[in-house]
Amino acid sequence: MKNALLNKALMASSAACLLTFVMTGAQAAPTGYDQLNFQTEVKEEVANDEVRASLYKKAQAADAKTLATQLNTTVNKALAIAKRYPSVTVSTGQQSTYPRYDKNDKIIGWTGQANIDIKSTDFAATSQLIAALQETLVMDNLNFGVSDTKKNTIEQKLMTDASRAFQNQAKNLTRAWDARSYRVLTVNLNTNNNNYPRPMYSSMNMKAEAADASVPRQSFESGNSTISVTAGGTIELTK
Fold first, then answer.
1. Residue 193's closest CA among 161, 231, 230?
2. Is the pLDDT of residue 207 over 80?
């Protein structure tokens, strides 16, 4: 019964979540005595296989229409360039427009910003695209992480490992407390992993290169991330 419930829990989606299942059977109800709560954790360090970046165009104009034309033209050009890199996912990001005032609170112009977000597991193509976009856009941030596909595969394995670690710890505690055996009352499997904990690169204050300048392609060092799964719960000892 225990193995059947465990396999059922492990077959569930491994997206960031908290899985809880209760062990039941023909046994008597828990007595509330000789119960132990504990947690085990398993980790695996893996190479980052996905890069994400955001670039932006900031402009000023005397009127909102002219400003919108400038930003839209730049974004459309960037999206056209990005189409040459089908392995890179590109999307329009945040956009904002706000007025500029003089000392008498009169509007004297407009400032706006438009962002382009990119994501890919193809580092070479992404590097080339970023270099091309930096001729008109400014890099906001660049970071690396583990793709959902890879993370889910690793988490499935770690959920099994964490469950086994929990059972091994339960056996050790049973011997330490001079008990004959134990039964599992509850188990929680936590797979809450953050793929992108911090930017690897930021250049908010960098100026965009001139439109006719050639920006060299940047080499990427993606680094590693740690994927972890915890198994915590309650067992009851049988004396």
1. 230
2. no
